[in-house]
Structure formats: structure tokens, C-alpha cells
Amino acid sequence: MKYEFPKGFWWGAATSGPQSEGRFHKRHKSVFDEWYDRDPKAFFDQVGPNVASNFYNDYEADIRLMKEAGLQSVRTSIQWTRLIADFETAETDSEAVRFYNNVIDCFLANGIRPVMNLHHFDLPVELLEKYGGWTSKHVADLFAKFAARCFELFGDRVKDWTTFNEPMVIVEGEYLYEFHYPLEVDGKKALQALYNINLASAKAIEAFRASTCKQQGGRIGIVINLTPAYPRSDAEADVRAAQFAETFKNRSFLDPAVRGTFPKELVGTLATDGVLWESTPEEDAIIKENTVDFLGVNFYQPFRAKARETALAADTWLPEKYFEPYEMPGRRMNPYRGWEIYPQALYDIAINVRDNYGNIPWYVSENGMGVEGEEKFRDENDQIADDYRIDFIKEHLAELHKGIAEGSNCFGYHLWTPIDCWSWSNAYKNRYGLIAIDDLVTQKKSLKKSAYFFKKLAEENGF
Ligand code: BG6
Fold this sequence. Notes:
Elements: E1 10-14, H1 17-20, H2 31-38, H3 55-68, E2 73-77, H4 80-83, E3 84-86, E4 91-92, H5 94-109, E5 113-117, H6 125-131, H7 137-154, E6 160-165, H8 167-175, H9 187-210, E7 219-225, E8 229-231, H10 236-258, H11 264-272, H12 281-289, E9 294-298, E10 303-306, E11 324-325, E12 333-334, E13 339-340, H13 344-356, E14 362-366, E15 371-372, H14 387-405, E16 410-416, E17 430-431, E18 435-439, E19 444-447, H15 449-460
Parallel strand pairs: 1-2, 1-16, 2-5, 5-6, 6-7, 7-9, 8-10, 9-14, 14-16
Antiparallel strand pairs: 3-4, 10-11, 12-13, 15-17, 18-19
The chain binds 6-O-phosphono-beta-D-glucopyranose.
6-O-phosphono-beta-D-glucopyranose binds next to loops.
């Protein structure tokens, strides 16, 4: 059987500024730059974001390789810490404007549609130190100013924008589970950040609609990581646990982004627990009025939940008050990343978006498989024969295809990632790219077997 995708389907890949560019000529530090400078040992092999995949210097050659891999669209991000010289006024850095103009022009010259995201875990550390980062409403305003600047500078050529990548991961990493600087565990702050990031996204969308982008054919969305929550069993307590996990982990951003409102059951629970965020009716109205044109969905793994069996030992509010993660026996794992592989969830996402979110246009903005030690898979031609990645992509596409055949409005698939890139505290442990970095020092790059598969996939609009 041939899986054929709708006409005009995007075949592409995603990366981000902080994971690819390197810190060259960057005026300000992000929270990750700061964390690395303070504690390099927290990063795999002590490799930080300083060089990343050297996109700042190599972008022309890198984009040519992306074209060779058949990519028709690529998402990256504009770094707030690079573009902006003064956060209060959103005055820009001229070298950064030159760089992003060149990158966009280079994508277009190579026939690749640039999709630009505005925040990929890279909050300027000054805004954390001065105002408390995402716990501050002022930072939401500054983000909207930065976004407005991007629309004004690049909106003539960039037609597809997204405000945030995986906003829930910011909340979880910074304020719940200690994997993003400032590594705090504070439920109240987490929930305020959750609200403020929704507000910042809505304010950026408001700025987009006030700009000339729309007249120039532009549209704006958000990239949300969805981890569909499945209960351990049909028992009522397990189902309730999974429902709360679904509401908190997925709907906290999905509902405001698409429907303009927070799930009532979440607001009710948080109010009862005395931890509801601070907000005004005016702010709620901004969220209500500025919903997205389209949705990007990052999908890597499902979430399995069971009713709590042990007491929760925490001196702050945690969502785990209402569920416990469940390790399903026999689940299929990617052992390198420690994430379950469950392609069927992509079909469930497609149907959920179709039935519960007005069948809004959406695309798979990330999906992929991080593998450690790919060097051992080099074949006689010295190429990384990553058949496991090809199989992973095919299995996920088959499920997506089923969802599309049943009417879900999905317009594309972006693999994480075009070129092996720096993965936060995992640095270069797991590789995700269609294109390998053969040597981190020389930054020599070469196409993996999956790149040739992807090229054919794009050319044939299916497999
Ligand atoms: C997503 C992010 O969470 O998954 C990327 O948007 C990230 O930034 C990717 O790199 C893969 O996850 P990780 O943690 O293995 O790098």
C-alpha cells in the first residue's frame, strides 16, 4: 500500500536558534547560557551551547545540505537574546538583523519555506534576574514587543510564525522538575508562569494582527508538545488520574491557544487548592480574542497515568497530587532517551484535534528519535545507516495518514531535526538529525541514510 499525503503537504524538519547557532556575537545570555556558565558539569560531557552546530557561521552550507535532504520547509527560531539589544525598547542589534535576514534569504533562495518561532526555551537571563522571568507580566509585555519587531523586520518574507515552542516544558523545566534554569520546585510560580506564557503568546498574536503580516499572507500559531494521557485501566480512579494529567499537561496550553479559554475543571481544582494564578478580566479577554491560526504539535511519547498509590512528598503544589506516572509492562522504549515509542498516539491526536478543537489546521511540528552512539551504524560507504529512524518515521506517518484519511486537517510533518543539534543538558548525547555532525570540533557534516529516504518521501509525497 502506498501512503499518499494531501497535495501541498509540508515535508520538513525543525530546529531552534539556541540549539544550532552557537553563541557567536550574541549580546545577551539566555537561561541555558547562564546555567552552562555556572555549572558546565550539569551538561553531558560538559558540552554547552557555545558552538552548537555552528549555524551562525555555517548557515549557507547547512541550508544546502538541508536542500539535499529534500526538505521543503524548516522551522528554526529567532533568539530574543540575539536580535534585541535593549529589551525594554526592543531596539535591535544590527549584526543580528543582518544574520537573520541572510538566513531567511538563504532558505528562500534554496526553495525552502522558513517557519519562524519566537521562543524556544531561551528566556534572556536578565529578565529572570530583574523581573522573575515568566512569573512576571512585564516580561510577557516585553516578549510581545520583541515579537512585533520580528514581524516588522521579517514579515515580508516569513509567512508562517509561531509564538512559543513547548510552553509546558518551560513551566515543567523551570518550576516543577528542575531541568531548566533556575531549577526551582514551586507550584505557585509554575502556575503563574503557565498563565503568563499563555498571555505572552496572545499578546504576540495581537501584535501580529496589528502588523502588516496578515495582509502579506502571513499566519501565526503555537507549537505545543502533546503527550496524550492513557489510564492504566478502566477503573474509575485510574481514568480520573489520566484525565487530570491530560488536562494539566496538554490542555493548559491547547485550550487557551485554540479556544481562548482554560479548561474549567483545571481552574476549579486550582482554585479549590488555593493556587490559582493571578489574572484580570482584561488579560483573560486578550487570551480569548487572540487565538491561533494554526497549531504545531510536537509528539514524542504518550503519558501513562494511574491513581496515586503513594503519598506525595512535596512541600509545594504539584500536579502529581492527582495522578502517578505508570510504567506499563511491555511498553516499547527508545532506551537512549528513555521515552516510550507509541505511534498510535499520533492518530489519537489527529482525532482529538478534529473533534475537540474545531479541526483547526495543524501540522506535526516535531517528531523524532534520539539515538546515542550512531557512529557504530556506519556502513561500508561510511554513511550512518539509521534504518531505525526510517522505520520510526514510517510508523508514525502511517498513523498520521489514518487520521488524515478520517478527516483531520493536518498539513505537514517536520522531523526533529535537520542536522544533529545541541540537546540542552543532554548536549550531543542523543542524535536526531537526518544529517550527522561527524566531528564536533571540525563540524564536518554528512547525510545519513534517513536523509535519502526523506528526500524520496518528499518527492513522492508519501511512501
Ligand atoms: C523537544 C524540543 O522537546 O524535543 C527540542 O522542542 C528538543 O528542543 C527535542 O531538543 C528532543 O528532546 P531532547 O531533550 O532529547 O533534546
